Amino acid sequence: MDTWNEAAAAARPAEGPLAGLRILELGHFVAAPFATRLLADLGADVVKIEPPGGDPVRQWGEQANGRSPWWSMHARNKRCIALDLKHPGARPVVLRLASGADALVENFRPGQLDKLGLSEAALREVRPGLVISRISGFGQDGPYRDRASFGVIGEAMGGLRYLTNHPPEETDLPPSRVGISIGDSIAGLYAAFGVMAALWQRDRSGGTPGPFTLDVALTEAMLSMMEGTLPEYGVFGTIREPQGSRIKTAAPTNAYPTRDGKWLLIAANSDPLFRRLARVIGRPELADDPDFSANPGRLRNVATLDAIIADWSRGFDAAEADRVLTEADIPSTLCFNAADIAADPQYLARGMVRELDDPQIGRVLHAGIVPHVPEAPGSIRWTGPAIGAHTDEILGEAGFAEAEIRSLREEGVVR
């Protein structure tokens, strides 16, 4: 059966390069839902299966009318069905939905779906070409397979948490968090990328069934992002250490204080850029000083150089210093907070800050859609829906009669 989303596609024609793609989400918290939100933004029809009480993220963060503003964006463009996966009657419902899907994305602990009767074999029996993307803490095998994990565990084991700090000689505080669930989001990015790679290969081969199973681990997703950390250790035996707001390979690149108590990021780490910066800060002689004229010298004397630049930046408010540097074509920016982002003309011009009407919480700001696809732009078709908002619609499209839906609800299978 391959009709479960046809009525919705007709009622709400999707926009974007992924219009017509069908994704089933068995996800909770962050990683899998983030992956499917990216796909939904680009036009895919995503059906999210969540428990009758809803995804826990519905209750995360500050609440408006008892609802999370984060959820408004986290679940946008998805259709939600509330289904108790632990109920015996849930299995045939999921299989019916899977039979019409191109891909399934899940982030349960390894083996959990098998216990619910939703093994890869069962799913592929109803949809042989189904792409299955599995996100977990440590992967579907290996000695850590069954250990509990969240994004922060992936960040720590992947090496990011160790580096997200000031140098050890400057602080004895614990390594800082990035401030968001970056480990989950990075894993979600890899999952979304993997889904599209698998579907491309499937279509390239004329639709020949895979199987295509994607195994994404939070730890491995983070390790994959760690640039030269592992190769440098393998070749030199060196361990990359926290650098604070500097980088180890080039200078000057740092955050500098301003008169109004803000921070200004300046990245003048090539020789031509540094020559321009030296003129801007009133120290043109630095560009010809052997201690600063080339990058190796600037790195050896980085503390002195940063102090010189900071003396200049403290004489300006952040916005004014940024204007002066921008006019000199030197990469710089304020360290943006949410208010800065919401008011920024570049973000506004490109639709990356959008004011929407969420029926559950009122006016809300969302981040826009990435990537921009001018020829086939995605759209924010609706904000994160209420629990079970599309249960009847989705089941009806899957071929369930009204009496069957009523029976499923009375039995507590769906909400």
TrEMBL record:
Record GO terms (molecular function): formyl-CoA transferase activity
InterPro entries: CoA-transferase_III_domain (IPR050483), CoA-Trfase_fam_III (IPR003673), CoA-Trfase_III_dom3_sf (IPR044855), CoA-Trfase_III_dom_1_sf (IPR023606)
Keywords from the UniProt entry: Transferase
EC number(s) per entry: 2.8.3.16
Top-rank taxon: Bacteria
Protein name: Formyl-CoA transferase
